[in-house]
Amino acid sequence: MKTMINWLEDAMPWLQGVIAHVQWTGPTLLVVAIIAVWLMWKITHKVAKLFVRAILLILAPVLAAGAASLGLGSLLNDIETQLGLPPSPSVTASQPVSSASPPVTSLTGKVSYIDDGDTLIVKQANGQEVTVRLLGIDADEVAHGSTPAACGGDAGANNLRHLLPLGTTVTATPDPVSDTWDQYGRLLAYLDATAVGLPDVALAQVAQGYAEAWVPSGEPRPARFNAYKQAQQVAQQAKLGAWASCQTIGR
Predict the structure, then answer these.
(1) Domain span holding position 180
(2) Are 208 and 201 spatial neighbours (Cβ–Cβ below 8 Å)?
(3) What is the tens place of the pLDDT at every residue in 106-120?
C-alpha cells in the first residue's frame, strides 16, 4: 500500500505534464469526469480509489474550464464536495483559461516587414516582433501560394511600403470598443507614423485609394470608421489609386 502511494506521488508530475499537453474539449472533459466519478463510487479497493482521486486532483483545473464552457460549473463543484476534493477555481465561459496575448494600450517600434496593404510587422526595442492589422480598413489580398493577388493587392502593398519604409518608427494603438487581437494573433490598431508625417496610416491608405473602410460583420465600429468611410468615398469617386482599375477593393 505504501509503495503504491509513493509511486503515485512520483508519477504526479509526469501525469500533470501529459494532461497539460492534451487538447481538451468540453465534451471530452465531461466524459472523463463522468467515468472518474463512477469509478470513485464503484471501486472499493483503497489503492485504486486513491489513484482515481489523484487523477481527479490533477484534472481539476481543466475540468473546471470544461464544465464552465458547458454551463456545468455548479455541478462540478457539487461532485467535488461529495468526493472530498478541493473546489476548482471559478472559471466562466466568457473568461479564457489562459491568454497568450496580453492587453495593450499602445506599442512603439520600427517597421520590419510589410505583408500587404493593411498588415505589417513592427519590431519593438526589446526585439519582439508584433504583427499589426490596421484597424477599420481592408485592402485587397496579395498572392498567397497558388491564389493570385486580388485586383488592387500588389498596388496596396506597394503603397504601404512607400508610406512606411523599413525602419520607420510607428506607434500602434487599439480602439477601446474593438477587439485588441484577432483570431490570427494580430494586433488590431491605429498606426501613427508621425516620423514620416502620417498621424494615421490607415487613413492615408484609404484616402490614396488603396483600401476601403471596413469592420467585420457584427463588430462595433471603431471611432475613426466614419472618417475612413468619407475618405473612401472621395477616393472612389475620383478613381484614385487602385480605384482607377478596380471595381471593388477589400471585402
Answers:
(1) 107-244
(2) no
(3) 999 999 999 999 999
